[in-house]
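tool_call predict_complex ligand=manganese (II) ion
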Amino acid sequence: MRILLTNDDGIASPALAQLKRTLSAFGRVITIAPDRNQSATSQSLTLHRPLRIQEVGEDTYSVDGTPTDCVLIAFHGQLGEKPDLVVSGINHGPNMGEDVFYSGTVAAAIEGVLQGVPGLAASLVTRASTDFQEPADIVGRLLRQVLERGLTRRLLLNVNIPFLPAEAIRGVRITRLGTRVYEDTLVRKVDPRGRDYFWIGGEDPVWRPDEGTDFHSVDAGYVSVTPLQLELTDQGARADMQEWGLSHR
Ligand code: MN
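tool_result ok
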């Protein structure tokens, strides 16, 4: 099996090297990752300048682009055979609930699915500096069990791992996306030249404590595995709106 490994934290993330070691047990791992932190770049593509790729180690490349650029290069950049699986992570920080829409980590796994192979995104739920070997081992064990069931082309898994010692993790839960409680996350201040500036950021997200969600499970000490799908159509609204008789006149 040929695995594309990427992330959005950048090629220098220690999590990337540790996950590569774990994934090597499954086949040949090609790492193609952004040359710098590209967190929260979502599914963005670099269209207005060329992309440069640099070989930085064995089967390891950095790209001056986004996670999605990296996946496209893996599939269409003539670097050899195409991957059979895209693994993205391990992200340094959670990717739960609506945050999957902003996440570069999840976007890379989605791009794998758009290219016709399964995708797995993995995140460690902490901003503290830490070692990623235990989370990488967990991803490896999950992947082994999923492979035993057989991969399907549309399989897209979003994995969030609680920041706990291995022995304190209570198990795995299959979850749904949770819901964020929006707080003030935009700072408005004045720069030294007297002009206003805005800075997106603020506190860590707060989640509604709904049972069955990714947040609820991680909070209770379980690894959260959320199967995602890319069909965004609201079928209920579609059925209702068929009756509206909308007109362009
Ligand atoms: Mn990130």
